[in-house]
Structures are given as C-alpha cells and as structure tokens.
Amino acid sequence: MTIQHAATGVAPSVRAEGINQGASSGTPMVSFEGVTKRFGGTGGQPAFTALDGIDFTVAHGAITGIIGRSGAGKSTLIRLVNGLEKPTSGKVIVDGTEVGGLPESGLRDLRRQIGMIFQHFNLLSSRTAFDNVALPLEIAGVDAKTIKAKVGPLLDLVGLGDKAGSYPSELSGGQKQRVGIARALATDPKLLLSDEATSALDPETTQSILELLKRINAELGLTVLLITHEMEVVKTIATDVAVIDRGLIVESGRVFDVYASPKHDTTRTLLASSLALPEWLRTGIKHSPSAGDRALVRLVFFGETAFQPLTGRLVAELGSDVNILAGGIEEIGGKPFGSLVVSYSAEPAVIERANRFYAETGLSTEVLGYVA
Amino acid sequence: MSPDMMLNLILKSLGQTLQMVAAAGVIGSLIGLPIGIFLATSGRGELFPAPTINRIVGLIINAARSTPFIILVVAIIPFTRLITGTSIGTYAAIVPLTIATIPFFARLVEAAIREIDKGLIEAARAMGATPTQIVFKVLLAEARPSLMAALTMTMVSLIGYSAMVGAVGGGGLGDLGIRYGYQRFMPEMMLAVVVVLIVLVQLVQSAGDALARRFDKRNRKN
C-alpha cells in the first residue's frame, strides 16, 4: 500500500528546475529511435530479444545512467552506441550520425570519438600504463612525439603520473580503472561509455573512480553514458537515469525525480537496497492493523520539504507520540534527499489527521505496514 | 672405436641435428604462425570471418597431424625431391620435418591466441582498431609468452622427430644412436647419444622458458 501525496505539490517545481540545469538545447549526443535487437533466431531456434523498441536520448554534457538487473539488455544497449553491436531494427544516432549507416571505416572514425571503459578494465598485460594509454593513439596513427606529449598529462589527470612504467599486474583494481579512463580519453572523445566500470571494485575505490568521472565530465565537458546494476552509482554521479528491464526502458528522467518518486516496480526494487529497513524492524511488520498497533510510515523529504521543520509539526499535529525508528539524509543529483521511518498510533482518527497533514505540506509518504 | 672417433661422430651428428631442427623450426614456424593466426581469427563472427576455409584448413591440419611422422617422411618423397633435388641426406630431411612442424606449431599458435581475453579484442575494436591492428598490437603482443612456450615445445618435438629421418639418410643424433648403438652393439655410443640429446633438450627448454618469462608481464608483483 502506497500513498503518494507529493505529485501535486512539490515534484513539478523540482522537475522544472531539473530541466533548466540539465541538457543544453539542440540535438542530443545519443538518441535511440525504436531500437530492437534480437540474437540468434536461425535454424528454427527462437530469437532472443535483448532490446525491444528503445526510444531514449542522452543529452550533451550530461552523465546519464542506465540501470537494470543483469540480463536486462543494458550491455547490448551501450554497445549499440559505438557499433560493437548492430540493431536489428531502429536507429542509433550519435551526435547527428546514424551509426548503422556507417561503413567499417566510418565506424572506426566514430569509435575514435567515443571512449569506453570496462568492468574488467581490459588493459593489455604486455604493456605498461603509459603504453596502454598510448594504444588508441597508435591505432589512430598519431606520431610517437605527439603520443609522448599526450600520455603524460593524461596519466597526471587520473592521478597516476608516477605509475607510467608499471604493468597492469603491478597496479590495484582502482589504478587499473584509472589507466582505463586515461586510455579512453586519449583520443579526445566527445562521449565516454562506461560498462559497469566500478562493479569489480570495492566501495571506497568505487567512490574515488566515480568522483574522477564526475570531475572529467565537469572539466572536459564530456558526455558520459554509463550502465550499472547499482543504484548507488547512479545516485552518486548521474544527472539523468533510465531504468531498463527485459529490453524496455520502463522509466527515465532526472535522477532526483526518479529516486524521489519511482513509478515502476523495477525501479523500486533497485532502490530498495538503498532504502532498506533495518533487520529488526523488517521482521515484525504486518500488512493490516489490529487494535493497539502502530502504523509504520516512511516520510520522504526532498525539494522544498527537505528544508522545512516538518517532523516537529507532524508531532504537534498528531497529538500522538511519534517515534523515529530509522532514517538518513543523502545527496542525490546534488540535492538533499531525506528518508525517515516513523511509527504512530494506527487509530483511524490519528491516521486521518496524518493524511491531511501530508496533503497540506506535500510530504511524500509510504505506509510500510503495522507493528505491535 | 676410439673415444676420439666417437667424439667426432657425435659432433658431426649433433651438427646435423642442429641444422635440421633449426631450419625446419624456423621455416615451419614462419609458415605455421600465420596459419595459426588464421585458425584463431576466422571463425564465425571473428576478426576475419571465413568459417568454411577455416574448417577446410582445420581438416588438412588434422590430417597432417594424424599421419605418423615416419610415414609422412616416406609419403612426401616426390615432393622432397621436387624441392631439394634429392630424397636422401640432411637437406632432404628438412622438408618432412618442416611439413610436420607447420600444423603442430599452427595449432599451438591457435591455442595461444584463443586464450587471450575477448575483452581485449572488444576494447581494441572500441578504439577503432582495424582487424590487422588487433592482430599485431593486441593478439600477438599479448600472446608472446605463450608463443614462446609454443616455439620451445615445437623445437623439442623436432629434436625427437629428427631421430627418425635416419630412414632417409638424414643423419643426426638419433640416426647415430640406431646405427652404432643398436645395430653395431655399441651401448656406450647409445648412452652418449642419449646424454647429448637430454642436454640439448634441457638447453632448449631452459632458454625458451627464460624468454617466455621475460615476455610475461602478467604476474609481476611490486
């Protein structure tokens, strides 16, 4: 049972603000138009539909996260952007160029304008950090002198200026991904694709890599498209998000809006881990109240409600003791986002007063259940 | 037979063995390498897709590899004569040894390249590399330690094969062991030949291992 009071009051203003600071005008960096991708289907075997009619755009300069469970189609989706996969039908357009219409040589030119980083780094074990970063330049036919002048600053940018001569096996996971990032930036791309770039890293290293990506996005104005199965990643760096499930984009928008009021079950499931209730609270929850029970309610503060003393007013309003059980304030898409789990008497009169209060203030709430 | 004579015979035979193994090893590997690369990259959906030719080449290689070497030596005598003008002697023996090396080395090259992480090929494609660039800058570079090990294994096998070309007058240590050690009842000659072969194989193996280690940057620790 979910009660969403927020939609009328606060969310629209947040959304409008989001659009203003978001994408610059003009054509998007990447757009998917009715993209379908099927695998197999030869020799009488049924085809596997990985993507089923994707319509989606990535704005210039944005950090867009595509989130989904494994097998949802996100790896296929990101590989369509640089032509590593070809769509069965539909169009993928990168900065005005349709990827599917390019000959092999045109595709190679396009790929030199798109950097890519990988979950398992994919560094050449036989090359030093320096030579790994130099590889895309060698491939593009850049002369040795220019390569030398280019690679050093790139390694400095990712904080590995002193590791130029180290082989990948001498580097930690985070350092390897930094080399991967420097390599992806070597040809001055306009778009960076990140394929689960932090999934093989520990939480602390993940944070530092995400910060680096954020900094590169800000300093170089590079558009970033990343896929992940971790909401944490999207929450930390993305400005826009698309939720993909079974080959379909089920929800998309500004990260903050999707996070604040998820509309699709898959989104809620993905969010659940970061909004999880503590174990001791989860075990005693009932779905319907019996006499003397207390309602367990999650209050979500975001946008304007995040700055108002609503908890105090709620206590005054209910005239009943409100008990705070769990909660926290996080930063999502650069804005504060608070979540508070409270309990109060489940008597109909109290519930009614509470609901009236939520409607007045625009506080987003969700009844989680009832506890004795 | 005096020790001096024995030593002379052994040195001469060692020279023949080295000559045959080196020539067949170098020529056979040079031909086997591109065939191995082709086998590893021409399957369906790979860098140079040509699945039919891939299958045909694979069949020929399997046929060559399943022919016992001594039969191969005899079977290709007309070809050997065509190439060298004779079917007898050390030079003539290099031909069947080379023919045997090609499929052996090609399969080892194929295995060495196939064990490279597909992610590296994908990364190189994402950088805009051509298939040829991927072969030279990624596959061969990354496979270097395995290729070195493959070359070592090929050389050691060749030393073994070279013992059989005595059948066509190829000479070499194996031939010496058979003719003197076995047929003329000279166990000391047999022993000497075996010891020299053991030392030779050890040297080749150690040199190959050292080079492979030098190329291998995969397990370096701080």
UniProtKB/TrEMBL annotation, chain A:
GO biological-process terms attached to the record: amino acid transport
Superkingdom of the organism of origin: Bacteria
Keywords tagged on the record: Amino-acid transport, ATP-binding, Cell membrane, Membrane, Nucleotide-binding, Translocase, Transport
GO MF entries: ATP binding; ATP hydrolysis activity
All residue ranges annotated as the ABC transporter domain in the record: 30-271
InterPro entries: AAA+_ATPase, ABC_transporter-like_ATP-bd, ABC_transporter-like_CS, ACT-like_dom_sf, MetN_ABC, MetN_ABC_transporter-like, NIL_domain, P-loop_NTPase
Stretches assigned to coiled coil: none
One Pfam family here: ABC_tran
Record flagged with keyword Transport: yes
Cellular component GO terms held in the UniProt record: plasma membrane
Function (record text): Part of the ABC transporter FtsEX involved in cellular division. Important for assembly or stability of the septal ring.
Family of this protein: Belongs to the ABC transporter superfamily.
Protein name: Cell division ATP-binding protein FtsE
Source organism of the structure: Rhizobium wenxiniae
TrEMBL record, chain B:
Pfam families, per the entry: BPD_transp_1
GO cellular component: plasma membrane
Transmembrane domains' residue ranges: 20-41, 53-76, 88-109, 147-169, 189-212
Location within or outside the cell: Cell membrane
Record's keyword annotation contains Cytoplasm: no
Coiled coil spans: none
Name by which UniProt lists this protein: D-methionine transport system permease protein
